[in-house]
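Researcher: We're teaching a course module on how sequence relates to structure. For the next exercise, students receive a sequence and then see the predicted structure as tokens, so they can try to spot secondary structure elements on their own. Here is the exercise chain.
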Amino acid sequence: METTRQQKIARLLQKELSEIFRLETAKLGNCLVSVSSVRVSPDLSTAKGYLSIFPSEKSEEVVKSINESAKTIRFELAQRVRFQLRKTPELTFYVDDSLDYIEHIDELLKK
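Model: And here is the predicted structure for the students to work with:
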């Protein structure tokens, strides 16, 4: 069960990470990355970001490169939330494959 504080921080991180990824992927122009959800640990030291990536064929390599540059992303995030948070949590990113799962279930139901 998440506390209200965890939920507020998760929403703040999701909003700011979405903006960071929107600006960075606009420069690349080859894929679209959106932050579907963020989960913050109870001690607020770590955050897990779940990313939805289009096209989904590139999702594994994109998440791998994002995790490699997590320190730079954390620094940019810290610059954006420096007045709201005292410490910026450590970031880890995962692929959110819920949309692919929904499509798969729809295909099975159509058969």
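Model: If you want an answer key for the exercise: DSSP finds four helices and three strands in the chain. Residues 4-28 form the longest helix (25 residues).
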